[in-house]
Amino acid sequence: MFSRDKWSEIIEALSSNWFRTLLTAFGVLWGIFILVILLAAGKGLENGVKQGFGGIATNTMFMWSQTPSKPYKGLPKGRRYNFKTEDVAEIKRNIPNLRFVSPRNQLGGFGGNNNVIRGLNSGAFNIYGDYPEIIQQEPMDITSGRFVNYSDINEKRKVAVIGDGVRSTMYDKDEEVIGSYIKINGVNFMVIGTYKKKGNNGGNAEEAQKEIYVPFTSFSQAFNQANNVGWMAITAEDGYSISDLKGGILEIIKSRHSIHPEDDRAVGYFDLFEEFNKVNGLFIALKAVAYFVGVLVLLSGIIGISNIMLIVVKERTNEIGVRRALGASPWSIRGQILMEAIFLTIVSGMAGIVMATGVIYLINLALSGADTSEMMFANPSVDLGVVMTALGILVFSGLIAGLIPAQNAIKIKPVDALRTE
Protein backbone atom coordinates (compact mmCIF):
# COMPACT_ATOMS: atom_id res chain seq x y z
CA MET A 1 0.00 0.00 0.00
CA PHE A 2 1.39 3.40 -1.03
CA SER A 3 0.92 6.52 1.07
CA ARG A 4 0.34 10.03 -0.19
CA ASP A 5 3.78 11.03 1.07
CA LYS A 6 5.43 8.35 -1.04
CA TRP A 7 3.59 9.47 -4.17
CA SER A 8 4.45 13.07 -3.47
CA GLU A 9 8.08 12.07 -3.12
CA ILE A 10 7.99 10.20 -6.45
CA ILE A 11 6.52 13.22 -8.26
CA GLU A 12 8.98 15.60 -6.58
CA ALA A 13 11.96 13.42 -7.54
CA LEU A 14 10.89 13.23 -11.19
CA SER A 15 10.01 16.94 -11.46
CA SER A 16 13.21 18.23 -9.84
CA ASN A 17 14.79 18.20 -13.31
CA TRP A 18 11.73 18.26 -15.51
CA PHE A 19 13.56 18.80 -18.82
CA ARG A 20 15.70 15.71 -18.29
CA THR A 21 12.63 13.72 -17.26
CA LEU A 22 10.73 14.92 -20.35
CA LEU A 23 13.50 13.88 -22.72
CA THR A 24 13.80 10.50 -21.01
CA ALA A 25 10.03 9.92 -21.16
CA PHE A 26 9.98 10.78 -24.87
CA GLY A 27 11.95 7.61 -25.67
CA VAL A 28 9.24 5.40 -24.15
CA LEU A 29 6.46 7.57 -25.62
CA TRP A 30 7.93 7.24 -29.10
CA GLY A 31 8.50 3.51 -28.77
CA ILE A 32 4.92 2.71 -27.76
CA PHE A 33 3.62 5.19 -30.36
CA ILE A 34 5.55 3.37 -33.12
CA LEU A 35 4.34 -0.02 -31.84
CA VAL A 36 0.64 0.95 -31.87
CA ILE A 37 0.87 2.74 -35.23
CA LEU A 38 2.61 -0.24 -36.86
CA LEU A 39 -0.02 -2.65 -35.52
CA ALA A 40 -2.86 -0.36 -36.66
CA ALA A 41 -1.29 0.01 -40.12
CA GLY A 42 -0.96 -3.76 -40.40
CA LYS A 43 -4.62 -4.15 -39.42
CA GLY A 44 -5.63 -1.53 -41.98
CA LEU A 45 -3.73 -3.37 -44.70
CA GLU A 46 -5.33 -6.65 -43.60
CA ASN A 47 -8.81 -5.10 -43.68
CA GLY A 48 -8.16 -3.68 -47.15
CA VAL A 49 -6.98 -6.99 -48.60
CA LYS A 50 -9.78 -9.00 -46.97
CA GLN A 51 -12.27 -6.40 -48.19
CA GLY A 52 -11.23 -7.47 -51.67
CA PHE A 53 -12.68 -10.91 -50.98
CA GLY A 54 -16.02 -9.12 -50.63
CA GLY A 55 -17.32 -11.43 -47.92
CA ILE A 56 -16.88 -14.40 -50.26
CA ALA A 57 -16.99 -17.83 -48.60
CA THR A 58 -13.23 -18.34 -48.29
CA ASN A 59 -13.52 -22.08 -47.54
CA THR A 60 -14.32 -22.59 -51.22
CA MET A 61 -12.74 -24.08 -54.32
CA PHE A 62 -13.67 -23.44 -57.94
CA MET A 63 -13.31 -26.34 -60.37
CA TRP A 64 -13.50 -26.58 -64.16
CA SER A 65 -12.68 -29.11 -66.88
CA GLN A 66 -9.47 -29.01 -68.93
CA THR A 67 -7.90 -31.41 -71.42
CA PRO A 68 -6.33 -34.65 -70.11
CA SER A 69 -2.56 -34.82 -70.55
CA LYS A 70 -2.37 -38.64 -70.44
CA PRO A 71 -4.20 -41.34 -72.43
CA TYR A 72 -6.33 -43.63 -70.27
CA LYS A 73 -8.63 -46.63 -70.91
CA GLY A 74 -8.22 -46.29 -74.67
CA LEU A 75 -9.08 -42.60 -74.65
CA PRO A 76 -6.50 -40.18 -76.09
CA LYS A 77 -4.90 -37.25 -74.33
CA GLY A 78 -5.93 -33.77 -75.35
CA ARG A 79 -9.62 -34.68 -75.68
CA ARG A 80 -12.37 -32.36 -74.50
CA TYR A 81 -14.92 -33.33 -71.87
CA ASN A 82 -17.56 -31.55 -69.78
CA PHE A 83 -18.72 -31.85 -66.22
CA LYS A 84 -22.29 -33.15 -65.91
CA THR A 85 -25.09 -32.47 -63.46
CA GLU A 86 -24.70 -36.11 -62.38
CA ASP A 87 -21.17 -35.25 -61.20
CA VAL A 88 -22.67 -32.74 -58.79
CA ALA A 89 -25.00 -35.34 -57.31
CA GLU A 90 -22.12 -37.83 -57.02
CA ILE A 91 -19.92 -35.34 -55.18
CA LYS A 92 -22.73 -34.48 -52.76
CA ARG A 93 -23.40 -38.14 -52.12
CA ASN A 94 -19.82 -39.30 -51.56
CA ILE A 95 -17.97 -36.34 -50.01
CA PRO A 96 -19.09 -35.51 -46.45
CA ASN A 97 -18.90 -32.11 -44.78
CA LEU A 98 -19.66 -30.10 -47.90
CA ARG A 99 -21.93 -27.12 -47.38
CA PHE A 100 -22.57 -26.15 -51.01
CA VAL A 101 -21.85 -27.74 -54.37
CA SER A 102 -23.02 -25.20 -56.94
CA PRO A 103 -22.90 -26.07 -60.66
CA ARG A 104 -22.51 -23.04 -62.90
CA ASN A 105 -22.72 -22.22 -66.57
CA GLN A 106 -21.52 -19.03 -68.15
CA LEU A 107 -21.88 -16.97 -71.32
CA GLY A 108 -19.57 -14.08 -71.96
CA GLY A 109 -16.21 -13.58 -70.30
CA PHE A 110 -13.86 -16.37 -71.35
CA GLY A 111 -16.58 -17.84 -73.58
CA GLY A 112 -16.87 -14.72 -75.72
CA ASN A 113 -19.02 -11.60 -75.60
CA ASN A 114 -22.78 -12.01 -75.79
CA ASN A 115 -25.18 -9.25 -76.63
CA VAL A 116 -27.89 -8.28 -74.18
CA ILE A 117 -30.59 -6.16 -75.77
CA ARG A 118 -33.36 -4.05 -74.36
CA GLY A 119 -35.15 -1.78 -76.79
CA LEU A 120 -32.51 0.36 -78.46
CA ASN A 121 -29.92 -0.34 -75.77
CA SER A 122 -27.43 -3.19 -75.97
CA GLY A 123 -24.39 -4.34 -74.04
CA ALA A 124 -21.95 -7.21 -73.53
CA PHE A 125 -22.14 -8.80 -70.07
CA ASN A 126 -21.30 -12.02 -68.27
CA ILE A 127 -24.39 -14.21 -67.86
CA TYR A 128 -24.34 -16.96 -65.23
CA GLY A 129 -26.67 -19.91 -64.82
CA ASP A 130 -26.73 -20.56 -61.07
CA TYR A 131 -28.48 -22.13 -58.12
CA PRO A 132 -29.72 -19.98 -55.20
CA GLU A 133 -26.79 -21.06 -52.98
CA ILE A 134 -24.35 -19.00 -55.03
CA ILE A 135 -25.41 -15.85 -53.20
CA GLN A 136 -23.95 -17.34 -50.01
CA GLN A 137 -20.70 -18.22 -51.76
CA GLU A 138 -20.33 -14.90 -53.56
CA PRO A 139 -22.27 -12.50 -51.32
CA MET A 140 -24.02 -9.56 -52.89
CA ASP A 141 -26.52 -6.97 -51.73
CA ILE A 142 -29.92 -7.26 -53.40
CA THR A 143 -30.77 -3.60 -54.02
CA SER A 144 -34.28 -4.27 -55.34
CA GLY A 145 -36.54 -7.27 -55.96
CA ARG A 146 -35.14 -10.70 -55.09
CA PHE A 147 -32.57 -13.33 -56.07
CA VAL A 148 -33.15 -16.61 -57.87
CA ASN A 149 -35.00 -19.24 -55.75
CA TYR A 150 -35.81 -22.93 -56.08
CA SER A 151 -39.24 -22.26 -57.59
CA ASP A 152 -37.41 -20.59 -60.46
CA ILE A 153 -35.09 -23.61 -60.70
CA ASN A 154 -37.85 -26.23 -60.62
CA GLU A 155 -40.14 -24.40 -63.05
CA LYS A 156 -37.28 -23.30 -65.32
CA ARG A 157 -38.47 -19.72 -65.20
CA LYS A 158 -36.76 -17.29 -67.55
CA VAL A 159 -35.97 -14.68 -64.93
CA ALA A 160 -32.84 -12.64 -64.34
CA VAL A 161 -31.09 -10.69 -61.60
CA ILE A 162 -28.94 -7.89 -63.00
CA GLY A 163 -26.08 -5.87 -61.54
CA ASP A 164 -26.24 -2.14 -60.97
CA GLY A 165 -23.77 -1.73 -63.84
CA VAL A 166 -26.18 -3.50 -66.21
CA ARG A 167 -29.04 -1.38 -64.91
CA SER A 168 -27.21 1.90 -65.58
CA THR A 169 -26.31 0.75 -69.11
CA MET A 170 -29.65 -0.67 -70.18
CA TYR A 171 -32.14 1.58 -68.35
CA ASP A 172 -32.79 5.26 -67.88
CA LYS A 173 -32.05 6.69 -64.43
CA ASP A 174 -35.61 6.64 -63.02
CA GLU A 175 -36.96 3.82 -65.15
CA GLU A 176 -38.66 0.87 -63.44
CA VAL A 177 -36.55 -2.28 -63.68
CA ILE A 178 -38.48 -5.01 -61.87
CA GLY A 179 -40.87 -6.75 -64.24
CA SER A 180 -39.18 -5.49 -67.41
CA TYR A 181 -37.62 -7.80 -70.01
CA ILE A 182 -34.15 -8.10 -71.45
CA LYS A 183 -33.13 -10.29 -74.39
CA ILE A 184 -30.09 -12.52 -73.83
CA ASN A 185 -28.85 -14.15 -77.03
CA GLY A 186 -32.31 -13.76 -78.49
CA VAL A 187 -34.16 -15.20 -75.45
CA ASN A 188 -36.38 -12.97 -73.31
CA PHE A 189 -35.82 -12.95 -69.53
CA MET A 190 -37.86 -11.00 -67.00
CA VAL A 191 -35.84 -8.96 -64.49
CA ILE A 192 -36.79 -9.89 -60.91
CA GLY A 193 -34.00 -8.19 -58.98
CA THR A 194 -30.91 -6.00 -58.98
CA TYR A 195 -27.74 -6.44 -56.98
CA LYS A 196 -24.53 -4.73 -55.96
CA LYS A 197 -21.46 -6.91 -55.42
CA LYS A 198 -19.40 -6.63 -52.26
CA GLY A 199 -15.62 -6.19 -52.36
CA ASN A 200 -13.53 -5.28 -55.39
CA ASN A 201 -13.69 -8.61 -57.27
CA GLY A 202 -9.94 -8.98 -57.47
CA GLY A 203 -9.44 -5.29 -58.19
CA ASN A 204 -12.21 -4.98 -60.84
CA ALA A 205 -15.16 -3.67 -58.85
CA GLU A 206 -16.84 -2.08 -61.87
CA GLU A 207 -16.99 -5.31 -63.87
CA ALA A 208 -18.42 -7.15 -60.86
CA GLN A 209 -21.56 -5.02 -61.16
CA LYS A 210 -22.00 -5.90 -64.85
CA GLU A 211 -23.19 -9.48 -64.49
CA ILE A 212 -26.54 -11.20 -64.94
CA TYR A 213 -27.73 -14.24 -62.96
CA VAL A 214 -30.43 -16.59 -64.24
CA PRO A 215 -31.66 -19.99 -62.95
CA PHE A 216 -29.32 -22.84 -63.88
CA THR A 217 -32.12 -24.92 -65.37
CA SER A 218 -33.55 -22.18 -67.58
CA PHE A 219 -30.01 -21.26 -68.69
CA SER A 220 -29.41 -24.87 -69.75
CA GLN A 221 -32.71 -24.99 -71.61
CA ALA A 222 -32.46 -21.58 -73.27
CA PHE A 223 -28.87 -21.96 -74.44
CA ASN A 224 -28.84 -25.70 -75.27
CA GLN A 225 -26.49 -26.80 -72.52
CA ALA A 226 -28.37 -30.09 -71.82
CA ASN A 227 -26.86 -31.55 -68.62
CA ASN A 228 -23.44 -29.93 -69.10
CA VAL A 229 -21.83 -27.98 -66.26
CA GLY A 230 -19.24 -25.34 -67.08
CA TRP A 231 -17.67 -25.21 -63.63
CA MET A 232 -18.48 -25.63 -59.93
CA ALA A 233 -18.17 -23.59 -56.77
CA ILE A 234 -17.73 -25.98 -53.81
CA THR A 235 -17.75 -24.83 -50.19
CA ALA A 236 -16.94 -26.93 -47.13
CA GLU A 237 -18.80 -26.72 -43.84
CA ASP A 238 -17.41 -24.62 -41.01
CA GLY A 239 -14.69 -26.49 -39.15
CA TYR A 240 -13.63 -28.46 -42.23
CA SER A 241 -11.05 -27.47 -44.82
CA ILE A 242 -11.94 -27.61 -48.50
CA SER A 243 -8.21 -28.22 -49.08
CA ASP A 244 -8.51 -31.51 -47.17
CA LEU A 245 -11.64 -32.55 -49.10
CA LYS A 246 -10.26 -31.51 -52.49
CA GLY A 247 -8.49 -34.83 -53.19
CA GLY A 248 -11.70 -36.86 -52.85
CA ILE A 249 -13.59 -34.47 -55.14
CA LEU A 250 -10.93 -34.72 -57.84
CA GLU A 251 -10.90 -38.52 -57.58
CA ILE A 252 -14.65 -38.65 -58.26
CA ILE A 253 -14.34 -36.43 -61.33
CA LYS A 254 -11.40 -38.43 -62.71
CA SER A 255 -13.18 -41.74 -62.14
CA ARG A 256 -16.44 -40.62 -63.78
CA HIS A 257 -14.70 -39.17 -66.85
CA SER A 258 -12.05 -41.90 -67.38
CA ILE A 259 -9.11 -39.66 -66.52
CA HIS A 260 -5.78 -41.11 -65.43
CA PRO A 261 -5.53 -40.93 -61.59
CA GLU A 262 -2.11 -39.26 -61.85
CA ASP A 263 -3.17 -36.71 -64.44
CA ASP A 264 -3.02 -33.40 -62.58
CA ARG A 265 -3.78 -31.25 -65.60
CA ALA A 266 -7.15 -32.65 -66.62
CA VAL A 267 -9.14 -30.88 -63.87
CA GLY A 268 -8.52 -27.21 -63.22
CA TYR A 269 -9.22 -25.75 -59.81
CA PHE A 270 -8.56 -22.73 -57.64
CA ASP A 271 -8.39 -23.36 -53.89
CA LEU A 272 -9.48 -20.07 -52.34
CA PHE A 273 -9.05 -21.43 -48.81
CA GLU A 274 -5.40 -22.23 -49.47
CA GLU A 275 -4.76 -18.76 -50.89
CA PHE A 276 -6.64 -17.14 -48.02
CA ASN A 277 -4.45 -18.98 -45.51
CA LYS A 278 -1.36 -17.65 -47.28
CA VAL A 279 -2.70 -14.13 -46.90
CA ASN A 280 -3.42 -14.74 -43.21
CA GLY A 281 0.11 -16.07 -42.77
CA LEU A 282 1.47 -12.89 -44.32
CA PHE A 283 -0.42 -10.72 -41.87
CA ILE A 284 0.72 -12.82 -38.92
CA ALA A 285 4.29 -12.21 -40.10
CA LEU A 286 3.62 -8.48 -40.48
CA LYS A 287 2.23 -8.34 -36.95
CA ALA A 288 5.32 -10.12 -35.63
CA VAL A 289 7.55 -7.61 -37.46
CA ALA A 290 5.51 -4.73 -35.99
CA TYR A 291 5.98 -6.09 -32.46
CA PHE A 292 9.68 -6.71 -33.11
CA VAL A 293 10.36 -3.20 -34.42
CA GLY A 294 8.14 -1.52 -31.83
CA VAL A 295 9.70 -3.39 -28.92
CA LEU A 296 13.21 -2.53 -30.18
CA VAL A 297 12.33 1.17 -30.33
CA LEU A 298 10.70 0.89 -26.91
CA LEU A 299 13.81 -0.84 -25.56
CA SER A 300 15.93 2.16 -26.45
CA GLY A 301 13.59 4.31 -24.37
CA ILE A 302 13.78 1.87 -21.47
CA ILE A 303 17.57 1.99 -21.56
CA GLY A 304 17.32 5.77 -21.37
CA ILE A 305 15.10 5.56 -18.29
CA SER A 306 17.45 3.07 -16.66
CA ASN A 307 20.41 5.38 -17.26
CA ILE A 308 18.57 8.37 -15.83
CA MET A 309 17.54 6.38 -12.76
CA LEU A 310 21.19 5.45 -12.20
CA ILE A 311 22.03 9.16 -12.26
CA VAL A 312 19.14 9.89 -9.89
CA VAL A 313 20.38 7.24 -7.46
CA LYS A 314 23.84 8.79 -7.61
CA GLU A 315 22.44 12.26 -6.94
CA ARG A 316 20.42 10.97 -3.98
CA THR A 317 23.24 9.07 -2.29
CA ASN A 318 23.02 11.28 0.83
CA GLU A 319 19.27 10.87 1.04
CA ILE A 320 19.51 7.10 0.72
CA GLY A 321 22.24 7.02 3.41
CA VAL A 322 20.08 8.99 5.84
CA ARG A 323 17.15 6.65 5.22
CA ARG A 324 19.27 3.61 5.79
CA ALA A 325 20.70 5.15 9.00
CA LEU A 326 17.15 5.82 10.22
CA GLY A 327 16.26 2.14 9.70
CA ALA A 328 14.74 2.05 6.20
CA SER A 329 14.77 -1.51 4.90
CA PRO A 330 16.41 -2.49 1.59
CA TRP A 331 12.94 -3.35 0.23
CA SER A 332 11.73 0.17 1.06
CA ILE A 333 14.63 1.75 -0.85
CA ARG A 334 14.29 -0.71 -3.75
CA GLY A 335 10.54 -0.17 -3.92
CA GLN A 336 10.95 3.61 -4.06
CA ILE A 337 13.33 3.46 -7.04
CA LEU A 338 11.23 0.83 -8.84
CA MET A 339 8.04 2.86 -8.36
CA GLU A 340 9.67 5.96 -9.81
CA ALA A 341 10.83 4.01 -12.87
CA ILE A 342 7.46 2.29 -13.35
CA PHE A 343 5.54 5.53 -12.86
CA LEU A 344 7.64 7.38 -15.43
CA THR A 345 7.38 4.49 -17.89
CA ILE A 346 3.61 4.09 -17.60
CA VAL A 347 2.83 7.81 -17.81
CA SER A 348 5.03 8.30 -20.87
CA GLY A 349 3.75 5.08 -22.43
CA MET A 350 0.10 6.03 -21.93
CA ALA A 351 0.85 9.39 -23.51
CA GLY A 352 2.23 7.48 -26.51
CA ILE A 353 -0.92 5.34 -26.70
CA VAL A 354 -3.12 8.46 -26.57
CA MET A 355 -1.08 10.10 -29.34
CA ALA A 356 -1.26 6.97 -31.51
CA THR A 357 -5.01 6.72 -30.90
CA GLY A 358 -5.41 10.32 -32.03
CA VAL A 359 -3.47 9.67 -35.25
CA ILE A 360 -5.52 6.52 -35.96
CA TYR A 361 -8.73 8.49 -35.38
CA LEU A 362 -7.65 11.18 -37.85
CA ILE A 363 -6.75 8.57 -40.48
CA ASN A 364 -10.14 6.87 -40.09
CA LEU A 365 -11.82 10.27 -40.26
CA ALA A 366 -10.06 10.96 -43.56
CA LEU A 367 -11.00 7.52 -44.92
CA SER A 368 -14.64 7.76 -43.82
CA GLY A 369 -15.51 10.04 -46.70
CA ALA A 370 -13.57 8.08 -49.30
CA ASP A 371 -14.50 5.02 -51.33
CA THR A 372 -12.25 2.26 -49.95
CA SER A 373 -13.74 -0.55 -52.04
CA GLU A 374 -10.80 -0.45 -54.44
CA MET A 375 -8.16 0.44 -51.85
CA MET A 376 -5.75 -1.96 -50.18
CA PHE A 377 -6.12 -0.11 -46.88
CA ALA A 378 -9.22 0.31 -44.73
CA ASN A 379 -10.18 1.02 -41.12
CA PRO A 380 -6.80 0.90 -39.34
CA SER A 381 -7.43 0.03 -35.71
CA VAL A 382 -6.12 -1.67 -32.60
CA ASP A 383 -8.27 -3.81 -30.34
CA LEU A 384 -8.39 -4.00 -26.56
CA GLY A 385 -6.01 -6.96 -26.57
CA VAL A 386 -3.31 -4.83 -28.21
CA VAL A 387 -3.78 -2.06 -25.65
CA MET A 388 -3.57 -4.56 -22.79
CA THR A 389 -0.44 -6.05 -24.36
CA ALA A 390 1.08 -2.58 -24.60
CA LEU A 391 0.27 -1.93 -20.95
CA GLY A 392 1.86 -5.23 -19.99
CA ILE A 393 4.98 -4.29 -21.93
CA LEU A 394 5.05 -0.94 -20.16
CA VAL A 395 4.83 -2.43 -16.67
CA PHE A 396 7.47 -5.02 -17.47
CA SER A 397 9.69 -2.37 -19.05
CA GLY A 398 9.35 -0.15 -15.99
CA LEU A 399 10.45 -3.01 -13.74
CA ILE A 400 13.45 -3.72 -15.97
CA ALA A 401 14.36 -0.02 -16.16
CA GLY A 402 14.32 0.39 -12.38
CA LEU A 403 15.84 -2.95 -11.39
CA ILE A 404 19.55 -2.13 -11.81
CA PRO A 405 19.33 1.36 -10.24
CA ALA A 406 17.31 -0.11 -7.34
CA GLN A 407 19.92 -2.80 -6.76
CA ASN A 408 22.66 -0.15 -6.79
CA ALA A 409 20.71 1.93 -4.28
CA ILE A 410 20.45 -0.82 -1.67
CA LYS A 411 24.18 -1.57 -1.99
CA ILE A 412 25.02 1.88 -0.64
CA LYS A 413 26.26 1.66 2.94
CA PRO A 414 24.78 4.27 5.29
CA VAL A 415 28.20 5.40 6.60
CA ASP A 416 29.65 5.80 3.08
CA ALA A 417 26.56 7.64 1.91
CA LEU A 418 26.68 10.09 4.83
CA ARG A 419 30.30 10.91 4.03
CA THR A 420 29.40 11.86 0.44
CA GLU A 421 29.09 15.57 -0.21
From TrEMBL:
The chain crosses the membrane at residues 21-41, 288-313, 341-364, 384-404. It is found in: Cell membrane. Residues 21-246 form the MacB-like periplasmic core domain. GO terms for cellular component: plasma membrane. One of its GO terms (molecular function) is ATP binding. It comes from the Bacteria. This is ABC transporter ATP-binding protein. InterPro entries: ABC3_permease_C, MacB_PCD, Macrolide_Exporter_MacB. Its main location: membrane. It comes from Salinimicrobium marinum. Residues 292-413 form the ABC3 transporter permease C-terminal domain. Belongs to the ABC-4 integral membrane protein family. The keyword ATP-binding applies. The keyword ATP-binding applies. It is a multi-pass membrane protein. Keywords: ATP-binding, Cell membrane, Membrane, Nucleotide-binding, Transmembrane, Transmembrane helix.
